[in-house]
């Protein structure tokens, strides 16, 4: 009896906050003359099972991208969906990557990273046993349960299936190469073999709840900097941006062994304030770690923090407000 080849959906690590991704920079443009740079990686005729990947290598111009990507992140991805590999990952996976697609350099301040255009398509699904939701046999589909024809996976490492162009799939060979090379930031979601009829999304949701990295975003800290007027002045915009970048730099870690205190999730102007939202494993420890930095923040108006003993989405979490500075003492 032939050994079953295991198949995984490949995604970036979306649970551990130390593995952030890239977004396109303001000056990024489609190298194919399309409306948006992200369109370069969209297939031709994306709703048809006869979709085709685009050819990018000959026209490619390194795209400017931005993001607080740590140096140990080998698979940060671009806009969450386009595969992006570090130089270290490209060196470790080189033959697999060049055999199955195009390795495309990016412009980044985070080091050498490469977008990847996966072009290998395998007609490998057993359509009789897979659970697929679509309105027509000629249309792409949502796949609830994957069943593969094992012979179609022989010598296959990195691929897509005609039924869904938005899912990157890998086999044991790819996963084992990543693990033996000690690469970081990859999430391998098992989809085959699974018990017949199993919804892989539900299984992945259960797995994520058990992930220890969930504790790294268990609590949160909110910085509230009051504006002089309802809308920020140009100087307040510049100063707020500097403060945010300083905080990101203060919290940045250079290795997975380094103590992780927390990270900036988002910053925004709202209700006459500039707010910076941070996730963290322990808000009291984070506030203590930042105590000197908070006192040095060059903000003349009211400035306080909110300790939130729950994640940013927990509506029932207890909160504690602490004033850092008052414009009218």
- Taken as a percent bin, the fraction of beta residues is 25-35%
Overall residue-averaged pLDDT value: 95
Cα radius of gyration in angstroms? 23 Å
Helices and strands, in N-to-C order? EEEEHEEEEEEHEHEHEEHHEE
What does this structure look like?
- The protein is α+β, with helices and mostly antiparallel strands and 329 residues long.
- The chain has 2 domains: 7-208, no CATH class; 218-325, Alpha-Beta Plaits.
- Helix content is 20%, strand content 28%.
- It is built from 6 helices and 16 strands.
- The protein has helices at 87-100, 172-180, 200-210, 234-251, 283-289, 291-296, and strands spanning 7-12, 23-24, 63-66, 84-86, 101-107, 113-118, 131-133, 142-145, 158-161, 164-171, 186-192, 219-226, 263-270, 273-280, 303-309, 318-325.
- The strands form 4 sheets. Strands 2-3-5-6-4 form a 5-stranded mixed β-sheet. It has a 5-stranded antiparallel β-sheet with strand order 13-14-12-15-16, with helices on one face. A 4-stranded antiparallel β-sheet has the order 9-10-1-11.
- Strand 15 and strand 16 (318-325) form a beta hairpin.
- It is elongated, with a radius of gyration of 23 Å.
- It starts with 6 loop residues before the first strand and ends with a strand.
Short synopsis of the structure:
It contains six helices and 16 strands.
Q: Layout of SSEs?
A:
Elements lengths: L6 E6 L10 E2 L38 E4 L17 E3 H14 E7 L5 E6 L12 E3 L8 E4 L12 E4 L2 E8 H9 L5 E7 L7 H11 L8 E8 L7 H18 L11 E8 L2 E8 L2 H7 L1 H6 L6 E7 L8 E8 L4
Parallel strand pairs: 3-5
Antiparallel strand pairs: 1-10, 1-11, 2-3, 4-6, 5-6, 7-8, 9-10, 12-14, 12-15, 13-14, 15-16
């Amino acid at each position: 009896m032939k050994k079953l080849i295991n198949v995984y959906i490949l995604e970036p690590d979306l649970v551990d906050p130390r593995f952030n991704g890239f977004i396109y920079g303001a000056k990024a443009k489609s190298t194919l003359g399309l409306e948006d740079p992200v369109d370069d990686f969209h297939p031709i005729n994306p709703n048809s099972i006869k979709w085709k990947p685009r050819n990018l290598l000959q026209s490619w111009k390194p795209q400017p991208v931005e993001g607080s990507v740590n140096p140990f992140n080998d698979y940060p991805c671009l806009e969450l969906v386009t595969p992006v590999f570090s130089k270290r990952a490209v060196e470790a996976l080189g033959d697999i990557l060049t055999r199955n697609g195009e390795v495309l350099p990016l412009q980044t301040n985070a080091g050498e990273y490469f977008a990847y255009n996966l072009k290998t398509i395998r007609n490998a699904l057993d359509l009789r046993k897979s659970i697929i939701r679509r309105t027509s046999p000629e249309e792409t589909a949502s796949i609830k349960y994957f069943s593969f024809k094992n012979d179609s996976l022989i010598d296959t490492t990195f691929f897509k299936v005609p039924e869904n162009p938005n899912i990157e799939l890998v086999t044991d060979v790819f996963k084992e190469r990543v693990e033996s090379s000690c690469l970081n930031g990859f999430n391998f979601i098992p989809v085959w073999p699974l018990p017949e009829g199993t919804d892989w999304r539900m299984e992945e949701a259960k797995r994520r709840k058990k992930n220890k990295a969930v504790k790294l975003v268990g609590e949160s800290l909110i910085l509230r900097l009051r504006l002089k007027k309802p809308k920020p002045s140009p100087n307040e915009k510049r100063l707020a941006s500097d403060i945010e970048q300083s905080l990101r730099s203060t919290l940045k870690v250079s290795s997975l062994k380094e103590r992780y205190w927390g990270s900036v999730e988002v910053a925004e102007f709202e209700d006459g304030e500039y707010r910076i939202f941070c996730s963290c494993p322990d808000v009291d420890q984070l506030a203590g770690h930042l105590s000197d930095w908070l006192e040095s923040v060059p903000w003349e108006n009211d400035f306080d923090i909110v300790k939130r003993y729950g994640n940013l989405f927990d509506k029932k979490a207890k909160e504690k407000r602490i004033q850092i500075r008052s414009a009218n003492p």
